[in-house]
Amino acid sequence: MAGRLTIIGGGVMGLMTAYQAAPLAESVTVLDRSRVGDPATASFGLTRSVRNDYRDPEYARLAFEARRLWREFERECGRRLLVDCGCLNLVKGTVTPDLANTYAVESYAVLEHLQLSREAFSATQLRDRFPQFDADGGWLDVDAGFADAGAARGPGRPRRAGGGEHRTARDQQI
Q1: d(C-alpha 133, C-alpha 118), whole Å
Q2: Residue 4 falls within a domain, yes or no?
Q3: Domain contains 112
Q4: Are 29 and 3 within 8 A, CB to CB?
Q5: What pTM was computed for the model?
Q6: What is the number of domains present in the chain?
Q7: At a CB cut-off of 8 Å and minimum separation 6, what does 174 contact?
Q8: Which of 36, 98, 120, 151 is the one with CA 20 to 30 A from 139?
Q9: How far apart are CA 82 and CA 152, in angstroms?
Q10: Does residue 103 fall inside a structural domain?
Q11: CB 52 within 8 Å of CB 143
Q12: Torsion of CA 110, 111, 115, 119, to 10 degrees
């Protein structure tokens, strides 16, 4: 068993890191300036986007791995936490004339490089499948959706071996 671990930040990433590290560490402490669920934090809200389409291949790979861990967490707590609906990035030449250098195109290339599930749509294909959009192209991250934060915070969360605590700025001076 490893020693003591301190994680700075009690948002979604920090708390999931603590959860995964708990069986491996003597103790895990999460330090945060606020309380879990504080509306002033970036992790507050009922849903959070879960996607793989990033420009940085390493970050995209980590996001894909995080999705696998979310699915494992779902099985352990017996409830659905991720809602699959994909993440569709659109481009319109009148808005962004240099389509080849858009986030949509560049992040799709990373999905392709990593051989992750994806679909590309021409303007015609896009109109046929998603008639509500008027765009010149679309790139879909198939294994994307959102995390249901309300379900993740609900009862029945599995406990992990190892000690742990969550401290806020109110508890001590950070």
Answers
A1: 19
A2: no
A3: yes
A4: no
A5: 0.74
A6: 1
A7: 31, 33, 167
A8: 151
A9: 9
A10: yes
A11: yes
A12: -140
